[in-house]
Design a protein that fits this description.
Length: 144
Amino acid sequence: MAIVVKNMLDAKGRDVVTVGPDKTLLEVADILNSKKIGAVVITGMEGRISGIFTERDLVRAIASKGPSVLDQPVKSAMTTAVTRCREETTVDELMGMMSSGRFRHVPVEHEGKLAGIISIGDVVKSRIREAELEAEQMKAYIAG
Ligand code: AMP
């Protein structure tokens, strides 16, 4: 049976680091650093996803506008057209989304609300676990 986002969230948890749209880039940089993560989701009314901001966006903003951009609100540098997935999305579909969209994070949406996030690291971990299980099954089969 194909592994889906629900299986991954059951294993890693559903917590997502979110920030409001008016947090400054410096405040968000501090959050990315202290939480050791690469992305935050910007949420608006009732926990709806209004954007995503990643370390890439931080580098881009500083390189194009200079360090004074760190005082600007995250809403000025976030991506608003966010590709989301659902709990039923398969790992293969996630890999397709990440490679065609050239991003490494996909928020999970359930009934219009943020319900988790999958990073490329989670996808790699899941693929490795799948390969290990296959190898174990093969060994058990051979051993009879
Ligand atoms: P990343 O590789 O995740 O650091 O993101 C690279 C770029 O894609 C940044 O500009 C992000 O804001 C954007 N991005 C990240 N995740 C998504 C997503 N799920 N949907 C749309 N854009 C995204």
